[in-house]
Design brief:
Elements (H helix, E strand, L loop, with lengths): L2 E2 L5 E2 L3 H40 L1 H38 L1 H38 L7 H26 L3 H22 L1
Antiparallel strand pairs: 1-2
Length: 191
């Protein structure tokens, strides 16, 4: 913090205060760094496993279909990040309002997720064919399954915004670790 001197000019903060503030900030945010590391590993893990076991062609088809589902994730991420300051204020001042806002976000996620699942079942293969050309291995089940995984990931993104707003950073680390373990287990079983 910058202090004013008696003559009205700003005084430089003391070095010790700056160092102490930086240390507290690092300790506070360190779990989020590990959360991002685990989430990035969870995103890359299925691709690595698929390439190793089924080859580049299967990886290409998977990546093409997953990219379409992942595009919606950007919207969810933007929604969560935009709502984060307001959620933090609500959590600090009115927990009931915070719970209502999180409930509305989850309802939004459920409605959009169901619409995406229905749309992917009905038009997913056609859309993949229009964008990437005919792929014999792309089925409605594959597209819908990847969209379902995307919907769960998007919902967890919104829940993560709520956990961040409530400053529950260590909880996010446990959740990210569970996501990575589940992803590894599902990849080993399904690939």
């Amino acid at each position: 913090p910058i202090a004013l001197r008696m003559d009205g000019r700003r005084a430089a903060p003391r070095r010790g205060a700056v160092v102490a503030t930086c240390k507290r900030l690092v300790v506070l945010c360190l779990p989020l760094a590990f959360v991002l590391l685990l989430l990035a590993a969870g995103t890359s893990l299925p691709r690595v496993m698929l390439e190793r076991h089924a080859g580049e062609r299967s990886l290409g088809v998977f990546s093409a279909v997953a990219a379409m589902s992942g595009a919606i994730g950007l919207l969810y991420s933007a929604l969560g990040q935009t709502a984060l300051p307001r959620l933090a204020r609500m959590f600090a001042s009115d927990r009931e309002q915070f719970r209502n806002a999180m409930g509305r976000m989850m309802l939004f996620s459920a409605v959009v997720g169901l619409a995406m699942l229905a749309g992917s079942w009905c038009w997913g293969v056609r859309l993949v064919t229009m964008v990437y050309g005919r792929q014999s291995v792309v089925t409605a089940e594959l597209v819908t399954g990847l969209v379902a995984v995307g919907v769960l990931g998007n919902t967890s993104s919104l829940l993560g915004a709520g956990l961040t707003a409530s400053r529950r950073f260590w909880s996010q680390l446990g959740a990210a670790l569970m996501i990575l373990v589940i992803t590894a287990a599902a990849g080993a079983w399904l690939i």
